[in-house]
Design brief:
Length: 291
Amino acid sequence: MINDISATLEFLEDNELYKTQRPYILTPHGHGLDQFGESNGLSLNTVRLINGEVVVRDIRGQNDFTLQDAGFEVINNETRNKALDFIPDEARKDYARETEEFWKERLGAEYVLTYNVRLRRNGYWDPNEPVNTAARGWIDPPAKGIHVDLTFEQAAVLISNHLTEQGKTEYLEEGYRYRIVNTWRPLIPFIEDNPLAVCDTRSIEPNDLVLTDRIFPNNEYTLYLVKHSQKQRWHYLSKQTPSEMTLMMMYDSKPGAARFCAHGSFKNPMAPKDAVPRRSIETRSLVVTKE
C-alpha cells in the first residue's frame, strides 16, 4: 500500500540578506542551544527557517531510485550488531567497522573510513533543558531543517583531515574518486514518528542550496541549507524497519553523478498518537575508489 503524505518540511527562508551574506550558526557548547543556536530568546545565528508544504511520496515497492542517479537508495540490509541502543563505545565502534565493510564491498573501495556514528531519538529529553553531556553522551534529537551535511569546499577539507599522510600520498592524485556517504536506519520495529525525507537530487536547482557556516568554539564547517521549490521531489519509505537501510550521497568528486542528497526529518501527520518515538542510527563515511 502506497502512503503518500502531505506534510510540512522546514526550509531556509528566501531572504535578501543571504544574497550578500552567508547565513551562520554559532554554537557554544553547553548552553542548552538547539541545532540552530537559539535558547530562551538568545539568537546566535542568521538562519531563518520557514514551513514548506510538500507531498512526500512513498517509495515502498519501488526500486528506481539509486545512489548514483537520485542521490539516495533504500536497500535490504541486516546489521550484525544486536545492541540496538548502540550506547556502549564498543557497539558503536563495531557498527562503524561493519559499515566500512559494507562500503568496501558495495563500491569496491580502496579505502573506507566511517568517521561518525550518530544516534537520534525523538522525545528523549526536553529540548530546552541545558545539555548534560554525561547523561546524553552522543545522542541527538532528529535533525531540524532540510540540509546537506557538507558543501563541496568542506568535503575537500574533510577528505584531507581523514586521510593519513600515506593515504594522501597514495590517493590524492588522478585516477581516484572520493565520496562521502551516509547510512541511516531505524532502531525500532518500524518508523512512523519523524521519518526521514529525502529529495531526488535531479529535482534540486543550484539556487536551492545556500552555503551556511556552522561555528563551534574549536572549529567550523560549512553545510548547505535548502530553500523550498515546487520542482523538488520528496520521498520517504513508509514504516521503514531496521533491516531497510537508506544510503545517501553527501559528496561525489565525479561530475555527472548525483553529488549530494538534501534530507531531514518531518512530523508525520498520519502517525497515530501512540506511535513509538523515533530512534535511529546513522553513519558518515569517506570512501575512495578507483575511477
